[in-house]
# Entry
Amino acid sequence: MHFSGERPAGDLTYSDVFLVPRRSDVTSRLDVDLSPGDGTNATIPIVASNMNSVTGPRLAATLARRGGLAVLPQDMALQDVDAGIRWVKDQPVRWDTPLVLSPDALVSDAASLLPPASGHGIVVASTTGRVHVDDILGIVPAARLGTALPDARLGDLVRGRAASIDADDVDSARAAFDLLIAADADIVTVLHHGYLVGTLSQRTALRSSLYRPAVDADGRLIVAAAVGINGDVAAKARALAAAGVDALVVDTAHGHQESMIRALRAVSAEKLGLPIVAGNVVTAEGVEDLVAAGATILKVGVGPGAMCTTRMMTAVGRPQFSAVLETAEAAAATGAHVWADGGVRYPRDVALALAAGAASVMIGSWFAGTIEAPGDLRVDAEGRVFKESWGMASTKAVQGRFGRLDPFERARKELFAEGISSSRIYLDPLRPSVEDLLDMITSGVRSSFTYAGAATVADFHERATVGFQSAAGYEEGKALPVSW
# Structure
């Protein structure tokens, strides 16, 4: 990366900078390869944060299907993480995971899982688990949920047998799309040897022509998991590796400390053959010490996240663009990589983090307001759909993490909480799914690459040219939804 003028003396965040277009021979966004090259097998540079309100197995599978990577949080019980990893590994790579409910389930049950959005639906079946075609009553499109009474039975909303396709009949994205058009269906069930293996929508078929799934050596979807720095970290790492995890994240708010270094050395000594991510840090010194202890990827960012109050509580942190820039330079010198963690609110921020040298960008609260994020959908007094989000150092998170302590010790822990305990993250009516957000983000980032004349992430690191702008310059770049 280069600055268009002199390198500013002070630290910068994403809104302080912009990308300068360069002469380019990359003429199509489809010619851009977004693979981060950080050893994780991801094919797009997007990582879902290890936050309880952001990443669960459902979001992890969906994100990996489109080439990204999600990190299951360290606050999950080890047996739940184990089950989550194995569940992700069992999910279809080519199809969407079907949402199956019984005919006696109510519309309100389905509405807690899906908003009334096109391309989604509930498979209504008389059995759960492995569903035979004879047990499928039909599909209730998600759009139908918005007009039905909450106490209506799903079985009463089924209108004939669901259109279906056989997995063996689909050998390309175009073939899948053409089958849906021929069936005059927005969403169909996918069958293999007479059993339900997934659902397919027109949008899913199109996406499969643009994204490459992130899979392991056995062709299964990838998933990462986080551990803290306390307790027997090595034993936890071994258990996660045995469950099939694809990357380990050793995580704490202040990563440049002795306890982190000891934990990293213990995990590294296990020689599990997995990428080891560690953080969070914001300095070159932090990178060097954690790499020396065994980290291969550094998680960068202190305080930029939407749910984080660290900077206001402690004055500790660093503007994120400069943090990524310095740490990425230090990591590159050691052969390690950087994940830019936090502060992302627009696709431009993802592009700027990559320009600064990040291999991937971690997204938290933005993904919390999606269909696939953990937790039920809720509706406010104005009819807007939202999910609840909270910070990982907040009082709510601390209460959950230390729930087994006696009341006195738990209350002492709560005195040192930092972060927002409850926030409503509203679903974008036009982009309710994490896949919809990925479409927007990757489209913007691909365009950024073409403006820079870069066909790969490595090219972008080299060719990106960054300028410094005033607050007025940043405001000038915003679109106006109404006239002035």
Notes: The mean pLDDT is 92. The domain at 2-92+213-372+430-476 is CATH 3.20.20.70 (TIM Barrel). The longest helix spans residues 434-452. The longest strand covers residues 195-201.
